[in-house]
Design goal:
The protein is α+β, with helices and mostly antiparallel strands. It is 28% helix and 37% strand. The chain is built from three helices and three strands, in the order ααβββα. A three-stranded mixed sheet has the order 1-2-3. It starts with a helix and ends with a helix. The relative contact order is 0.16.
Amino acid sequence: VGRVRSGRLRSSELSNATVTFSNLGERSADTLMPIIYPPQVAIIGCGQIVRRPWVKDGEVHVRQIMSVTIAGDHRVSDGRSAARFLSRLEQQLAKLEDG
């Protein structure tokens, strides 16, 4: 943090930043706990889609559920941004399922 604030980051820490999407769900993994490997700034991990009971409007329905996790480099962003991203992703996927 000190090097960021003083403008002394190495060029290797600033170049080729990426967000990686890993989908091990296609290989039957229920959940993926991603680990950032530089130069990534975030990695999103998706588990397989499974049918589970879900309560909506006070009633139990069977829905397709997918575990999504995110690991982020806090030198680039914060947990609030990751939470907003996951919330927006959930909204978009729900539209597809309900749609």
